[in-house]
Amino acid sequence: MKKVLYVLLALVILIGAGYQFIRFKSKPNYEGETTLSSLSSEAEVYFDDFGVPHIYAANAADAYRAMGYVHAQDRLFQMEMMRRVGTGTLAEMLGEDLLDVDKFFRTLGIPKHAAWSTEVWDKAGPSEWKSATEAYIEGVNDFIENGNLPIEYTLLSHKPRPFTINDIHAITGYMSFTFAMAMRTDPLVTKMARQLGPKYLDALSVHTLPEHHQIPNNYPLRDSLNRIQIDGNTLVSMLDRLPVPLLEGSNAWVISGKRTKSGQVLFCNDTHIGFAQPSVWYEAHIEYPGFSYYGNHLAGMPFGLVGHTRNHSIGLTMFENDDQDFFEEKLDPNNPAQTVYADGFKPLAVRKETIPVKGKDAVEFEIRESIHGPIVNEVIPEIGRLTTDPVASWWVYVLEPTRALEATWKMARAQSIQELEDAVRLIHAPGLNVMYGDKAGNIAWWATAKLPIRPPHVNSKIFMDGSNPADEPLGWIPFEENPMSINPESGFVASANNQPDTLSNGTFFPGYYYPGDRWNRIAKTVTARNDWTQESIKSLQLEALNENHPINAKAMIQQVDPSVYAGFETAIKTLENWDGSHRLESTAPTLYYKWLYHTLYGMMVDELGEEDFKNFVRTFLYIRSVPKLIRSQDSPWWDNTQTDASESSKQIIEEALKKSLAELNTQLGSDPNAWEWQKVVVLEHPHPLGAKKPLDKIFNVKAPAVTANEESVNKLPFVLNAEGIYKVNSGPAMRIVMDFADVEAAESVLPTGQSGNLFSPWYQDQAVMFATGQYRPMLMNESAIKSSKKKLVLRP
């Protein structure tokens, strides 16, 4: 017995010692002194109670060297994943399971575009943003060389290579891809058009409907130089394996002083991004002579995309404009190395790329390009199944080098609304809604992107004829005609991924817009009073209510004979009286989403098949089409094409309800009062290594149940499914509220925490706060910051 005890004790000591050794070798260093060889003078970094670094330096270069160092210390592995996605080198580190993902991004052209942007960057003359970016890279590489690498590198037996400007351009390209909704949607819409016909498409909302809410434009007066004059008043399944989250949507609104209690501008932003650990944004506050900025940074990006000074604030949402088209090419029957074009032919360009694979021989991969772009049949399975003709991707982003670094540098330093617009113009893709407020009382919204002028006959969501020059874009809309609103009479600007109103030239620009449920709630709420405060506006940012869902539910209930729900009358009555809220104790959403799934499945799976039905419920098309589908009784989708009978909406809806009630009875019990929403909602923030058990128990971050919903202001969506367990997959990547009456009292919260290092105290310290609707300060007050317990001095 004594021997056994001694052995057990020795094992415990050994395990404990091993853990302490690994922790010592991998944990971040937030205190004391560290040498950075690239520094020209000393810099101080104060870490506040939530791990946000507050950097004080003598000049811009040293500030960004320090920024690169602390950013890498907390987020290096996230930076690694981002750059590997953008450079098409995931398989080199994670193995051959990611080979098809690398092929996809290489075919799409992101690594090629990054190399082009880097070539242009290298040839450009000196600039402030170039020097600051290079300083940031020096700081990242100083950490790679001398810092404690996170444990993920040990587990993967990998040593990171130095960071480069090409990596930053690749990360920018990946960020642009995550906005590209066309790849998910256009193949499905084209299939419906070809195989089902116009009646089926007409029953959906492929394009914006009159009942959808649009963002009003308010174009400013401009001088002769166009300056603003201010009045002094499957693919889906493959992407599921990505080790980094997709950017999906967002809310932002800015309220002018005439609607706030303080009389100053009130600014709110919550970007919607796929949940992951670490979360997407990294907060950092930078101070050096002439500059003070609190920003939210993407991994590997030196400048904050969202942030504020004491004089202005910048926020973002997705524009959702259509900036990608697919051209179906015709091969010359006598020469498959060229395509038919007009009365002649155009050669296909071919390039070969070599993809390194961990533990395997490198794979050589051939990419063909037509005059419209790369041929994507082999890397987008939905297209490969739809046609044997080559299909080319025409994408605005890869048509010119990115200037994102210059744009974000200038946006943070804008001294006026005109300077901000000048910086915004530099963003050609992805399409972004840039939100703005300032101390002078201005509020503004710009939809920034290069918008192609398409021929009137073109439906940009259906594959075009690559042999027909008449389908080609005709040019570009001038930036001044882009959607925008500058100091509108309404006293607010807002964007929620919904359709902007017609442009100044009368164009209703196509896109992948959401129906505007969130925008409508924001607009109605904001205009209901004129005394908003930073505290009172939080109730809107945290609201989990959708006004459309109860209307859908009533439309379904009206189709059902009461005998169908005998014994479950209380459940139907609760759903009938539902106001659209998603409170944790509510039972109505539990029945609604289950019933909605089975109704849509009964309507559509016979036409689409299992795989494309799964794809449908993961696109904007599903969100936008549900009201029209559910409330129309004469839609061709109701009929089951696999039977001789002609099914009605009543039959499909009743059968779906029977199935839903039976499943909920089995899943949650016979008492409908026990069908609480919180029992079927799951929120877990997945780490890239968490896909392998038991590493999920170590790296993933679990959170309490949240008010999961579709298209409420506090959007916390999930994939509709038959199982009735709803895993929240995205949501606000931060929640910012700020009143310009007291910028130093601004607040935010992150979904998990500041650090991606497992051994950091700030790995998941905000997870419960986020789930329960709490906020914490974004400090800019020097005395409050310098009273922090943790201070890291960086010396040359």
UniProtKB/TrEMBL annotation:
The keyword Aminoacyl-tRNA synthetase does not apply. Its cofactor is Ca(2+). The active site is at S250. Keywords: Calcium, Hydrolase, Metal-binding, Zymogen. The keyword Calcium applies. One of its GO terms (biological process) is antibiotic biosynthetic process. Binds 1 Ca(2+) ion per dimer. Ca(2+) binds at D322, D325. Pfam families: Penicil_amidase. One of its GO terms (molecular function) is hydrolase activity, acting on carbon-nitrogen (but not peptide) bonds, in linear amides. Belongs to the peptidase S45 family. This is Penicillin amidase family protein.
